[in-house]
Specification:
four-stranded antiparallel sheet; Gamma Fibrinogen, Chain A, domain 1; two-stranded antiparallel sheet; alpha+beta; 3 helices; about 10% helix; about 180 residues; 8 strands
Length: about 180
């Protein structure tokens, strides 16, 4: 991540993906995520780096995204307890994908009624987040006071700090890990 993109995308943009070049920020797209994760059983690994070059990871044994008719609902279970980042997706499991123009979160009147609008992202918000990996990118990691809208994994770093780099990686469950 270099902060070249603001991932506050519309539903149409999140469905088909957002690219800033091969080495830049990108979102593969919810439709591609759905097609990939419905072919086999996949696991998910989220790797993150803060601005002090500390790294952490979280891994889940099961990861799947439903199709558009289910609003790209997230299924993520089997958190590995030896993960170093903590479970930042616990409350996101079972949530539909929300964007600034399609509100599927459970916030009600909290946060203005839309987590995606309030926290400048497009994500599987509940009310609102334990992780916000498509949040606003702050180049030094310092989030504007009171905003809490950065790239966040609250099980590892507080929402007052924006992460420098995050990667979500999927792998078929029957493939052995390569160290």
């Amino acid at each position: 991540m270099r902060g070249a993109r603001l991932f506050q995308e519309s539903l149409k943009q999140s469905v088909f993906g957002v690219l800033s070049g091969v080495l830049g920020e990108h979102w593969i797209g919810n439709e591609v995520l759905h097609l990939l994760t419905n072919q086999k059983n996949y696991r998910l690994r989220v790797e993150m780096t803060d601005w002090e070059r500390n790294t952490a990871w979280a891994e889940y044994d099961y990861f799947m995204v439903d199709d558009e008719s289910e609003s790209y609902r997230l299924h993520v279970t089997g958190f590995r307890n030896d993960s170093t980042a903590g479970d930042g997706l616990l409350k996101h499991n079972g949530m539909k994908f929300s964007t600034w123009d399609v509100d599927n979160d459970l916030a009600g009147k909290d946060f203005g009624g839309s987590c995606a609008k309030r926290f400048h992202g497009a994500w599987w918000y509940f009310k609102c987040y334990k992780s916000n990996l498509t949040g606003r990118y702050y180049r030094d990691g310092r989030i504007t006071d009171g905003m809490y809208d950065g790239v966040s994994w609250k099980a590892w770093r507080p929402s007052t700090v924006s992460l420098k780099k995050v990667e979500m990686k999927i792998m078929p469950r029957n493939v052995q890990k390569v160290n």
